[in-house]
Structure formats: structure tokens, C-alpha cells
Amino acid sequence: MKWRVASLLLFSAVLLGTTQCYYDDARTLYGTTPCDTAAVTWTADIQPLFQAQCAGCHGAISPGGGLSLINYSQISAASLNGSCMNRIQMPAGSPMAMPPNGSLTSCQKAKIRTWIRQGALQN
Q1: Alpha helices in the chain (DSSP H)
Q2: Which band of pLDDT confidence, cut at 50, 70 and 90, is reported for residue 38?
Q3: pTM for the whole thing?
Q4: Domain locations along the chain
Q5: Which of 2, 37, 77, 121 is the most exposed place for a label (fewest CB within 10 A)?
């Protein structure tokens, strides 16, 4: 009888120990990967983001609002003078909010903010 109680306690302890923390990373817990802003670069992060989210309306032929955002010099100038962050941080539904088809993710905004704080380098 004592061995059954001891066996049951041991089994319970092992069972509890193996089921406590099996969801221990952000991707499993939240379905996303953490936002890495430690090494934001023009080439890997900012240029592809602006190309995908901005160049459709702010392209070379007839840029929306008269603002072309297709190359480094145009994007860095608009970023350093504050106009990009002002527009992408506006609340959804505002007629001046960019991009008009939906807000950027918080990670995309953080990467742009980090890039600007680093001096909007062409790296």
C-alpha cells in the first residue's frame, strides 16, 4: 500500500514537471516572432518596407501628395524631417494616416523609428 502511494506521488511529480512550461517562446505563445530592432539596416529592413508599403502611391510617375518615396535620398529626407513618422503614427481612419490601406505593424514602425534614430544611414 505504501509503495502505491509513493508511486502515485512520484508519477504526479513527474507529470507536473513535464507539463508546466512547454509554451516557452514568443512564436508558440503569440504566433509571432519578436521584433528585432538591434540591427536595422536600409538594405534589409527599410528599403523593402518602403517599396512594399509606400512606392505604389508615392512612385515616380505621379507621386501621391507630390512626395516621391522610391529611392534612398527621398526616403531619408522625408524620414529625417519627421514627415514619415508623423504620417505612419496617425490613428487609423485619419485621412492623413499612411499607408491609407492600413496601418503598419508596431514592429515596422519600430524599425523605421530605430533607423531614423541611427541617422537614416544607407547601410
Answers
A1: 2-19, 26-30, 47-53, 72-80, 83-88, 106-117
A2: very high
A3: 0.72
A4: 42-117
A5: 2
